Amino acid sequence: MIDWNVAVQTGTRLVRPGPQVSHEEARQVVDELRALSRVAQGHVLDFTGIQAEQDPAPATIVDRPGWIRANVDGFKVVLEPLMEQMQERRGTGLLSSGAGGVMVQAVGSRVTGMQVGAILAYMAGRVLGQYELFLPPDPSGRAPTGRLTLVAPNIVHVEQELGVDTRDFRLWVCLHEETHRTQFTGVPWLREYVQDQMTKFLLASDLDPGAMLDRLRDAAEAVADAVRGGDSTLIDAIQSPEQREILDRLTAVMTLVEGHGDYVMDAVGPEVVPSVQQIRARFQGRRDGGSRMDKTIRRVLGIDLKMKQYAEGSRFVRRVVTEVGMDGFNKIWQSPETLPTHAEIKEPADWMNRVIGPRELDAPPEVNEA
What pTM, to 2 d.p., does this model score? Predict the structure, then answer.
């Protein structure tokens, strides 16, 4: 189990403070981000043609500790029921019986909580925004199924670091995150599909002690490889064979939604974000940079893999929209069966042939008869 209180305490203690701004500047940033998220929503709906909720709740603006607390709440919603199921499957063994077993579990949960908190502290300084799929239940039943969250200090830090137009950059970020809100509110089955794949992935964990020991050895080797500059990640190391198959499906859908978000944020048009090309070039340079330690952490946590997903998914979306238009691309949201596989993300023509069907070749130019 995970001690979530320890995770929050560790994360909020370790997270670095954001850029120093006055109370008035902070208020202006919050107000503008909320307003721009509304502006972005209209552009995303018009551009994508997805029929999503028309009057969503305003974006929630948080600081870094607020982002940590929000993510712990989301983790609890997803993981606690799964951990109970896994404990039931594991049964009662030596470590789980008696006062000694209770103490071992308590110590283990605190250690795990500290590890989760340390990871969240690192991530809290990097994330610009997200659409939170998993929220604690609202007893009134009025709360939305998801929430758009923007991390104000990180947005201010990056725009200062890049030296870009602040309104353009904030709208650009909002376009990406509003695309995610549109995806998950406009495609009713998508949230449930992602949660189902996550559940299957976690429940497919090896519970045999010998298998778990092998996974831990693999994880240690992955860390060592990342430090040496290799491509191994902890995510790769801890998977069972069944988990690898499930992760392939999860990777495909997350590559799609991230790439779709990246495509929309750049394609909406210079008339909306006049400096979009400058922002993209400088932001990409920032993604590729960083210290040796930062690059190592990104490799270990799989963040570099996520960056590759943005680029790979964006190429897929751009190719499909170019060939079959936005209406053709939107067939992707019809059902889980019309989602691209990981292999089809790499070869968009295979997805188009399977879902769209044979396409007419460009007609030959007309010949004017004399």
Answer: 0.80
